[in-house]
Amino acid sequence: MKSDNYVPILILVIFLSITNSLKSNTPQIHFSSYKKTIQAGKTTKIRLNLENAPSSKTSLLILQLRSPSNTKKIIYRKKIKKFPLNGSKNIKAYIPHMTPEIKNAHWVTFFKNSNGILSKSISKKVQINSADDFIIVTRNISTLGIFNSTFSLYIPPKYNENNPSSLLVVLHGRGGNGKQFIESWIDTAKQFNMILLSPSAIDPLMWNLFDWELIKKAIQQIKSEYKIKENNTYLSGVSAGAIATYLYGLNNTNIFKAIAPIAGIPKKESEFNIDPEQIPLPHDPHSQVPILNILGDKDLYFFNDSTDHYGIWMNHLKQSGYQVKDILYPNRGHTFVPKDTLLVGRFFSKNHSPMLGKIPDFSIVPGQKFKYQFKVKDPDNDSILKFKLKKKPKGLHWDRQSYTMEWSPKQKQTGIHKLKVIVIDNRKGKSKQKFHIEVKTTP
Questions:
Q1: Distance (Å, whole) CA 203 – CA 175
Q2: How far apart are CA 417 and CA 278, in angstroms?
Q3: Alpha helices in 143-185 (DSSP H)
Q4: CB atoms closer than 10 angstroms to residue 24
Q5: Torsion angle of alpha carbons 118, 123, 126, 130, nearest 10°?
Q6: Do the domains spanning 137-349 and 355-439 agree at the CATH topology level?
Q7: Are 302 and 265 in contact (CB under 8 A)?
Q8: Per-residue pLDDT of the chain (443 residues; tens, 9 = 90+)
């Protein structure tokens, strides 16, 4: 045989060798075990076999559960940074409680790094059964004999008369309705034992004062039928529902213990046409509620012009002495994600620090009798364990029982005296505030 005849064979051998080498170094993922039928509202286990897993710092193993009717609909998603180069990886996946029955979903898993997707694997069909207690009741409601609407209601499985629940009222965004919106909150309600009340606005495009009359009537109705923890009624909403949360919540602190607006703050030129700085905010903590504010810094409804709507509103709240937990997500637009509801649930369920009324700075003259009583409220009705006044000048009398300070400064005490108040409840919740007293030689 001539040597020329060996050339094609040699090329083929080299090609196959290179192909096998590349194949042997390609990341591979295989589904080793998983349940073919899984239950919404519960945790399921998946085992993956990995071969030649990428080891760079940017590499991720991603697991998804997708609905077949819409490949963009992701029911579950998890990013995994730590995994073996070769071997098995066990993953626990919680299927959201609100997931409806789906007969042919699929698990999808893939390796991804800065260059894109390296390899991908899709499981066989998986059936998802809806949660047994996923029951939402919708009722009609009317007020003044003119205005009619509906509200949706969810009762968590842990509820019973011996184990009262909190009541969480949630307000949908522009164009939404209570029945659809309530589904986003089921997992949170179940985890934190909350009864959900989700009203529909009379006009789906906005909330108004007539809606508030309906909401009040619905709250009264639920409280007459179910055992609600004392002083444990909360309010949250998204977008237009968030702005309504501020308007209803700040003006009805006798009803709501705390509020949590998501993706919405009062601003001019909104459908509510409200000037934030003109909203009267009381400085007395007995007329205030703790606030969780969630917003994205790319939300074009509030960051689209030269006016700092966000800064104006936050400053207005804090200058009035409100207790605000502010979450501003980077690179997030006008959106609402399931994680938000869990943040809200945790915020409402935690111990809230004592609320200390806004303390002004004072100006007095030597010999003038000065008296001031601090205003304090604990949202959880905890007892105040400690009330400290630090750096108080000589001669200032401090009464821990009545939260009152009295002082008649002497001539030699002219100048600025900086003080700090610290309030601690019996569950170690703490609030503090600084202020000063200026003693002037002349009024």
A1: 8
A2: 33
A3: 178-182
A4: 10
A5: -20
A6: no
A7: yes
A8: 455 555 555 555 555 554 444 445 788 899 999 999 988 878 899 999 999 888 888 888 999 998 876 556 788 889 898 888 889 999 999 887 667 778 888 899 988 888 888 888 888 899 988 776 656 777 888 776 677 889 999 988 888 888 889 999 999 999 999 988 998 999 899 999 999 999 999 998 889 888 999 999 999 999 998 899 888 999 999 999 999 999 999 999 999 999 999 999 988 765 555 677 777 788 888 889 999 999 999 998 888 777 788 988 999 898 888 999 999 999 999 999 889 999 999 999 999 999 998 899 999 999 999 999 999 999 988 888 788 899 999 999 988 888 999 999 999 999 999 999 999 998 889 999 999 999 998 77
Amino acid (one-letter) located at 347: F
Cα separation of 375 and 366, whole Å? 26
How is residue 369 annotated by DSSP? -
Return the CATH fold of 27-129.
Answer: Immunoglobulin-like (2.60.40)
CA distance 295 to 417: 38
Please write the tens of the pLDDT for every residue from 178-216: 988 998 999 899 999 999 999 999 998 889 888 999 999
Which residues in 303-328 are b (16+ Cβ under 10 Å) and which e?
beeeeebbebbbebbeebbbbeeeee
- Domain ranges in the chain are 27-129, 137-349, 355-439
Phi/psi at 184 (nearest 5 deg)? -70, -15
Q: In which residue are the tokens 């012009």 written?
A: 305
Strand segments, DSSP code E, in 211-266 are 228-238, 258-262
Both tokens of 245, joined, read: 């949360």
- Supply 209's token pair: 């004062």
Protein fold of 137-349 = Rossmann fold (3.40.50)
Give me the helix-helix angle, 209-225 and 240-250, nearest 10°.
70
Q: Write b or e for each residue in 78-97: b if 16 or more Cβ atoms lie within 10 A of its Cβ, otherwise e.
A: beeeebeeeeebebebebbb
* Distance, CA of 69 to CA of 169 (rounded, Å): 32
The class level of CATH for 355-439 reads mainly beta
Which of 224, 176, 173, 226 lies closest to 196 in space, CA to CA?
226
d(C-alpha 123, C-alpha 107), whole Å: 5
